[in-house]
Amino acid sequence: MGYKGVGLPTHTATTTRTKPSKMYKEKEDVVRWIFKFVGRRKKILFIISILVFIRVLYVWHGEEGQKVEAPHSDSTNKEPLSNIHNNLSYVGKASKAFRPRPPPYFRGYTLPPDHPCNRFKLPPPPADKKRTGPRPCPVCYLPLEEAIALMPSSPSFSPILKNLTYIHEKPLNRKTEFGGSDFGGYPTLKQRRRYFNIKGTMSVHCGFVKGRQPGRGTGFDINEKDLLEMKRCRGIVVASTVFDAFDDVKSPSNISKYSEQTVCFFMFIDEKTESSLKRDKRFNRTTKKVGLWRIVVVHNLPYTDGRRNGKVPKLLVHRLFPNSRYSLWMDGKLDLVVDPHQILERFLWRENVTFAISRHYKRFDVFVEAEANKAAGKYANASIDFQVDFYKKEGLTPYSTAKLPVTSDVPEGCVILREHVPISNLFTCLWFNEVDRFTSRDQISFSTVRDKIAARTKWNVSMFLDCQRRNFVVQRYHLADQEKLKKKPKETKSNGHTPSTGIGQQRFA
Ligand SMILES: *[C@@H]1O[C@H](CO)[C@@H](O)[C@H](O)[C@H]1NC(C)=O
Ligand SMILES: *[C@@H]1O[C@H](CO)[C@@H](O)[C@H](O)[C@H]1NC(C)=O
Ligand SMILES: *[C@@H]1O[C@H](CO)[C@@H](O)[C@H](O)[C@H]1NC(C)=O
Ligand SMILES: *[C@@H]1O[C@H](CO)[C@@H](O)[C@H](O)[C@H]1NC(C)=O
Ligand SMILES: *[C@@H]1O[C@H](CO)[C@@H](O)[C@H](O)[C@H]1NC(C)=O
Ligand SMILES: *[C@@H]1O[C@H](CO)[C@@H](O)[C@H](O)[C@H]1NC(C)=O
Ligand SMILES: *[C@@H]1O[C@H](CO)[C@@H](O)[C@H](O)[C@H]1NC(C)=O
């Protein structure tokens, strides 16, 4: 689903009317549900439930190709958020004892054909050649209250893999052919092969191998109070890190009151950053917060290389927040400027995927990416060559349109959107293992891990456009880059965030 329309919000109108029998069956279920309900409650409740159903239908019964009733973005639907939720919880309480169980899996949904997001077209790239570099573009978000109402009530389907557990080794087995670390363990090549052979129940290396619980004597250690608070996150987590300087960490902006109250915003910092933070007036020692960010100090960082340490919260969010359902990872150099519910609705729920990441804005071939990394001195040439050769021997080929619907082999990984289900958790565990065994350049290993899992299951990821990513996170520049950009003031502007960037955003203001 994810690749249809290459991430553009235009794919839904084309898929119409398949599986009528299934659709009928679902309608029948709904009718039965309603009768059961009415049988025991008074008329007034019945009417409320119908109203609520219009919303719920949208979520439950968006079976492929089915047209669903949905609130229109451009309608004058001004129903306040609190009402939707009050009514939902009211119905929930009143009928708890006899309400049939909700369907076990989220089935996806499609917006109605006449929805503005289906007519939404990206503007053509700027004609001025000098301005075709990285830039933001409009995204058709839904209005906040619709995005919130569409948050799935049940998890997505996890193909084949149902039960994923993580290896805890004591003592550590350090015997492997090459690579690995005390933090990630030393999986052998045979284990690596086995992990790619997806089964119903699996136990894999996934960082934190030294302890029973991530953050407790595993490296990347976190104090008990913070761990407890992290465990309490049961919905959406937004996570980021700053590992050397705190100065320009900015609190996320344009975040709704509802998200402020329900989304966990966690910023992981090292001890060095902590000492500079203590002098920062914005830091509240009682709440341990800077703006919306809840600050967590990480002790015993597992690697000497900061870039490797950063991969722990980036790829292993699901281990740090074991009860969370969704996560948005963002690099410390980015500022979030759109509500997380709207982002997840657009790039995960509406796409019916459990993993979404942006594509690199101009490179989509691992071999080309590896050369660029070498030329930029990002990592020792020999290590990059070794890794790429290894993948090549396993069957990695240059990207070409023959790989469609896969649109790219190279992600821009500074933002990752996930639903935490077993298969997507496995994906990031195995991706982390590659980063631990080979170079820390995760864009080199991404497609290998993705394609090995996709070859065994029907699971796939969505790769959206880099310019769409730049719509919801604003990149801050390193001082050296800012100097360079001063010479070209126009380009500086085009790289920034433009406030009115689409229907959803305009309504949001
Ligand atoms: C969403 O994906 C699930 C399986 O992952 C599939 O059963 C369902 O039909 C999809 N829904 C839509 C609307 O494409
Ligand atoms: C929700 O309940 C309020 C009263 O609490 C009512 O005014 C409103 O119409 C209801 N909305 C829906 C969608 O049922
Ligand atoms: C998952 O697998 C583990 C280890 O094999 C097992 O102990 C556990 O009971 C399983 N959980 C479920 C829910 O099946
Ligand atoms: C820290 O936050 C608490 C709770 O919001 C507030 O009462 C207190 O005044 C804040 N302290 C400082 C120093 O801002
Ligand atoms: C690494 O490779 C790049 C491109 O292949 C080359 O430009 C660079 O000089 C090499 N670096 C070293 C240290 O050999
Ligand atoms: C992802 O899976 C869906 C449903 O199985 C399919 O329609 C789509 O083409 C797949 N995309 C890729 C890139 O494999
Ligand atoms: C989002 O926040 C930025 C400040 O970070 C502001 O300039 C912009 O106008 C806001 N956008 C909307 C749509 O509220």
TrEMBL record:
Pfam families linked to this entry: TOD1_MUCI70
InterPro entries assigned to the protein according to its UniProt record, in alphabetical order: TOD1_MUCI70, TOD1_MUCI70_glycTrfase_dom
UniProt superkingdom: Eukaryota
Compositionally biased tracts (Polar residues): 495-509
Annotated segments matching region Disordered: 1-20, 484-509
Residues passing through the membrane, by range: 44-61
Domain TOD1/MUCI70 glycosyltransferase-like: 164-478
Alphabetized UniProt keyword annotations: Membrane, Transmembrane, Transmembrane helix
Cleavable signal peptide: none
Keyword Metal-binding applies: no
Name of the protein: TOD1/MUCI70 glycosyltransferase-like domain-containing protein
UniProt organism field: Brassica oleracea var. oleracea
